[in-house]
Design goal:
39% strand, 5 strands, 71 residues, 3 helices, alpha+beta, globular
Length: 71
Amino acid sequence: MLCELAGPDELVVLFWGNLMVPSVAVEAGLVAAHADVVLADCYECWVYLVDNGVLIEFQDGEGFTVGRVPQ
């Protein structure tokens, strides 16, 4: 899904729901390549695509929700 919405060099910001892990900004290609690790230990997280203004929400058991953040 991330590869369809963002180019590999687009900056994304990852936010984890447990607040124990700090938010990070990395390239979309890196997040897509390691998506299994990103989602492995979290029950919820958000991925914000900076250039596109798109937010992807993940909640364990609920799946993904995608929406554009109004500017």
